[in-house]
Design a protein that fits this description.
Keywords: Membrane, Transmembrane, Transmembrane helix. 9% of the residues are buried. The protein is globular. Helices cover 79% and strands 0% of the residues. Helix 1 packs antiparallel against helix 4. The longest helix is centred in the middle third of the chain and has 28 residues. The protein has one domain. It is an all-alpha fold and 165 residues long. The chain starts with a helix and ends with a helix.
Length: 165
């Protein structure tokens, strides 16, 4: 199991590092974000989630990089059978479940299925999810959360705990 998470978190660190570098050093992306922030601010309540994400994009990107690095360190520690790594891995996986469920709830809360007439003029740069994609994404995310919950349960079991020092 440790090797699987080393590979996955290694890719995750590489992707998060690429996102952080793109956010910092790619001028067209910065211009698009600035333009979208201005559009979202002008739209008011209809774009509040988008505005929140864009206002905190740098922190979200850096926290993604930080969590990916923590998972990589914990996965390497799991391979070496360190108990601190098992505990850190359990905590990080638990936080991943909370983040995923919170993201689903926010998406469903802000999905533009029956937008009021005041928001009819709202034309975001990026469209919101459609009902089939939202349903598929929700089911897939809940299945991944169940898999992560199984990994946490397995890491908390007595036979696995006995393997760590």
């Amino acid at each position: 199991m440790a090797w699987i998470f080393i590979v996955i978190s290694g890719f995750s660190v590489a992707i998060a590092l690429g996102q952080a570098l793109a956010l910092l050093f790619w001028p067209p992306l910065v211009e698009v974000i600035d333009q979208y922030q201005a559009t979202a601010a002008a739209q008011g309540e209809a774009a509040s989630l988008s505005a929140f994400v864009l206002d905190n994009l740098a922190w979200m990107t850096l926290s993604n990089l930080f969590v990916s690095m923590l998972v990589l360190i914990a996965a390497i520690g799991l391979l070496k059978r360190f108990n601190w790594a098992r505990l850190m891995f359990i905590v990080v996986l638990g936080l991943m479940i909370l983040w995923a469920v919170g993201s689903i709830l926010m998406l469903w809360q802000t999905a533009p299925f029956d937008a009021p007439a005041t928001a009819a003029a709202y034309q975001p740069v990026f469209r919101g999810p459609s009902m089939p994609s939202l349903l598929f994404g929700t089911v897939f995310t809940l299945l991944v959360c169940a898999l992560i919950g199984w990994v946490i349960r397995r890491l908390c079991s007595a036979p696995v705990r006995a393997e760590f020092h």
